[in-house]
Amino acid sequence: MPERKPATWWRPTHRISKSVVTTAERTSRGAALEGLSSIRERVRLRKDQRTSLHSWSFHQLGAFIAYKAKRAGVPLVYVDPAYTSRQCCECGHIDRKNRPNQAEFTCNACGVTMHADYNSSRNIAARGAVAWTAGRQSCLPEPA
Ligand SMILES: [Zn+2]
Questions:
Q1: How far apart, in whole angstroms, are the C-alpha atoms of residue 56 and residue 102?
Q2: Which domain holds residue 123?
Q3: Is 118 a domain residue?
Q4: Rounded to whole angstroms, how far apart are CA atoms 119 and 87?
Q5: Burial of 105 (C-beta count, 10 Å sphere; 0-12/13-18/19+)
Q6: Where are the alpha helices (DSSP H) in 49-115?
Q7: Which of 21, 48, 72, 119 has its CA 20 to 30 A from that of 33?
Q8: Digits of tens for pLDDT over the chain (144 positions)?
Q9: Residue 5 lies in a domain
Q10: Which residues contact residue 17 at a Cβ distance below 8 angstroms, ignoring those fewer than 6 apart?
Q11: What gap in Å lies between CA 122 and CA 128, rounded to an integer?
Q12: How many domains does the chain contain in total?
């Protein structure tokens, strides 16, 4: 019998995207994702360690979040993905050396240490808040 991909391969992606959207909905918040170029960037940066399935899953997760956020009325913004993994979410310092390895983030300026994915997600969230606020301000009607 040939090996077959199990029929449940997509379930974690659905579960994670649902968790993101329901948490945003419950807490009256929005969600932020890296813009499209991030996928190219990530593929380029991590070509050595990223399989095509992994980048496809990453893309699929973004698509599921977008779909579920729209359905739930949760605001979703896309942010500039540049340096989200190299920038310190505490002090803003950008340095390739802030990433001694794939999992770890250690800021060479302020010394803060945390999981690299957590640092990146905080950068994305902060950029999302800026983009959301800027968008709302630009949409406000002129005072009467
Ligand atoms: Zn720092």
A1: 19
A2: 29-138
A3: yes
A4: 8
A5: buried
A6: 52-72
A7: 48
A8: 566 666 666 678 899 999 999 999 999 999 999 886 545 445 455 554 445 545 677 788 899 999 999 999 999 999 988 999 999 999 999 999 999 998 999 999 999 999 999 999 999 999 999 988 887 776 666 776
A9: no
A10: 61, 64, 65, 67, 68
A11: 10
A12: 1
Tell whether 134 is covered by a domain. Answer: yes
What distance in angstroms lies between residue 107's CA and the mean position of ligand 1's atoms? 5
Residue 56 lies inside a defined structural domain of this protein: yes
Both structure tokens of 24: 């945003």
- Centre of ligand 1 to C-alpha 106, Å, is 8
**Non-local CB neighbours of 20 within 8 Å, separated by 6+ positions:** 31, 65, 68
Task: List the shell of residues around ion ligand 1, using CB closer than 5 Å.
Answer: 88, 90-91, 93, 107, 109-110
For residue 1, how far is its CA from the centre of ligand 1 (angstroms)?
A: 53
